[in-house]
Amino acid sequence: MSRKPRQKSQVGLYHITMRGNGKQLLFEDDADRRRLLSLVRSSLSRFNVKLIAWCLMGNHVHLVASDPDDNVSESMHLVMSCYATWYNRRHGHVGHVFQDRFSSTPISSEEHLLDAIRYVHFNPQKAGICPYGEYRWSSHLDYAERDPAIATVDLAFVRLAFPRACDYRAFMDASDVVVVRPSAGGRIDEDEALDVGISLIRSFGLSELSDVKALDKAKRNEILAAMRSAGLSIRQIQRLTGVGEWSIRKAG
Hints:
This protein has about 250 residues and is of the alpha+beta class. The protein has two domains: about 15-175, Alpha-Beta Plaits, CATH 3.30.70; about 190-250. The protein is built from ten helices and four strands, in the order E-H-E-E-H-E-H-H-H-H-H-H-H-H.
């Protein structure tokens, strides 16, 4: 079966996810983590892709990136192939390290971008590892400390989005922000389906999932197709939007 083409962002912004093959761990120790992060920074820089946020979890990685020249596929292929070679040689591993290709969720608005950053930094806290501010392997400190000597992301963006560190912390601690949960390219569970649906309709300028059903056919089908591409099942889309099964099938 051929792969679906990667959805492109109109503004060149993406939330990228890489996952371990079969949910296996991607990192045995901090040396692996440092190697992956080094590859991300060097490969993205080589292709003029700016790193905005990141978080390394046990079996998956989240990145938020700006890709003005449409080079994200080339840069991520380089990251994944180089890291797989490193990991296999270092640990005597045989076979695939990553689960298929990376997944990328296009970001189309400032609100969507900020929510994606918040989601990435909140990952360890949501996983029950530790409070987000205590986690070592994310770009949280770049936003909180802003030290050029140790910065891993584009600090110009950080300062533009959050002029003061306290502005960033207030945003992170806000309770009324919808957190974006990007698709991993596979099935999305019921807990995540609502957040993914809300994230998508926001990118299309809508405020309520129920608004989808009242749209003209062309616009409605565009949104339904995007939901299918993001990993939502027909049943989930039907439950969230109220659109009938056959209409969803025809749109996707």
